[in-house]
Amino acid sequence: MRYFIFMAMIALMSCKSSPQQTTEQNAVQEVVSEGKMELLSGEEFQGKMDALTENNKEFTLLDVRTPAELHADGYLENSININFNDADFAAQISHLDKDIPLFVYCRSGGRSGKSCAILSDLGFKEVYDLDGGIIQWKAEGKPVVNE
Fold it and tell me: How much is the pTM?
């Protein structure tokens, strides 16, 4: 019985966050709040791009799929392609303008999500990720360019 009480006390004490953990969590939260990363549906993604276009604002549309995927599934008009699987992916995207909104998509959302995390770490201010990727985009009947 003493052993059970002792273990219960240890478990309860270990659940409390230390002041150092709280400070570290706050620091991480501050860094995340400096930039804006958002997962958007196809409608929201298109709507934000349309609003920027209507207001003559610049943005970058980034496709992070392989060249073979672009040819097989098509791509969004005016997008640039930087393959997430390239060894120098981070170096390539670091040359993009960090101060204008960046819209990112891939095939289904996995690589674009990882790309958005890298972009945020590199200091991009406003990053939008297409939920469900081009598969969902096409399922919603949205246009793609096919070669």
Answer: 0.76
